[in-house]
UniProtKB/TrEMBL annotation:
<dbReference type="Pfam" id="PF04542">
    <property type="entry name" value="Sigma70_r2"/>
</dbReference>
<dbReference type="GO" id="GO:0006950">
    <property type="term" value="P:response to stress"/>
</dbReference>
<dbReference type="GO" id="GO:0006352">
    <property type="term" value="P:DNA-templated transcription initiation"/>
</dbReference>
<keyword id="KW-0238">DNA-binding</keyword>
<dbReference type="GO" id="GO:0016987">
    <property type="term" value="F:sigma factor activity"/>
</dbReference>
<dbReference type="InterPro" id="IPR013325">
    <property type="entry name" value="RNA_pol_sigma_r2"/>
</dbReference>
<dbReference type="Pfam" id="PF08281">
    <property type="entry name" value="Sigma70_r4_2"/>
</dbReference>
<keyword id="KW-0804">Transcription</keyword>
<dbReference type="InterPro" id="IPR039425">
    <property type="entry name" value="RNA_pol_sigma-70-like"/>
</dbReference>
<feature type="domain" description="RNA polymerase sigma factor 70 region 4 type 2">
    <location>
        <begin position="144"/>
        <end position="195"/>
    </location>
</feature>
<dbReference type="InterPro" id="IPR014284">
    <property type="entry name" value="RNA_pol_sigma-70_dom"/>
</dbReference>
<protein>
    <recommendedName>
        <fullName>RNA polymerase sigma factor</fullName>
    </recommendedName>
</protein>
<keyword id="KW-0805">Transcription regulation</keyword>
<feature type="region of interest" description="Disordered">
    <location>
        <begin position="1"/>
        <end position="27"/>
    </location>
</feature>
<dbReference type="InterPro" id="IPR036388">
    <property type="entry name" value="WH-like_DNA-bd_sf"/>
</dbReference>
<dbReference type="InterPro" id="IPR007627">
    <property type="entry name" value="RNA_pol_sigma70_r2"/>
</dbReference>
<dbReference type="InterPro" id="IPR013324">
    <property type="entry name" value="RNA_pol_sigma_r3/r4-like"/>
</dbReference>
Amino acid sequence: MTPALTAPPAQKNGAPARTRRTDAADEPVTRLALAARDGDPEAVERFVRALHRDVLRYVAHLSADPQAADDLAQDTFLRALGSLHRFEGRSSARTWLLSIARRTVVDSLRHAAARPRLSDRDDWQTAAEQAQPRGLPGFDDGIALAELLDAIPAERREAFVLTQVLQQPYAEAAAAIGCPVGTVRSRVARARATLLEAIAAA
């Protein structure tokens, strides 16, 4: 069973609970984005390194195709760096980048829908095993969570991944998705209920 589904907001087993990101926690990466926008090449590299993992995890869950995650993440950063001159810091750089990642995945899905499919069968287990490193703690849980998330409608999966997997504040997730905070909370609650039902059934 995954910690993301069962850990309460308080402490569990004497260990401190994971804390959700705040605007203040995102200030350093936002400063990096602004420095990169102003032409600092080192800031560009540090900005990409700081957010690469979050973008990779987000696009992998959102696209339901872990094998395409590297390409989608790279496309996200290419788009972001190409439009960095327009970033003004009104939102955190993380939120801005995840919004671009979301549009990148949507564009990819639209493009894929226009092509004929070679197979009607999506083998999530195989795809997840090929895309993730083996032999690490929590690997089996990661595959199990991926399979469970695949059964949730895309909009609920997206809200759940942003807030529960990537630990984004609800307001930041709402900004990335482009919907009210209440809608994000509702989608997360429904996703959580569906996941818990699936776990109980298993």
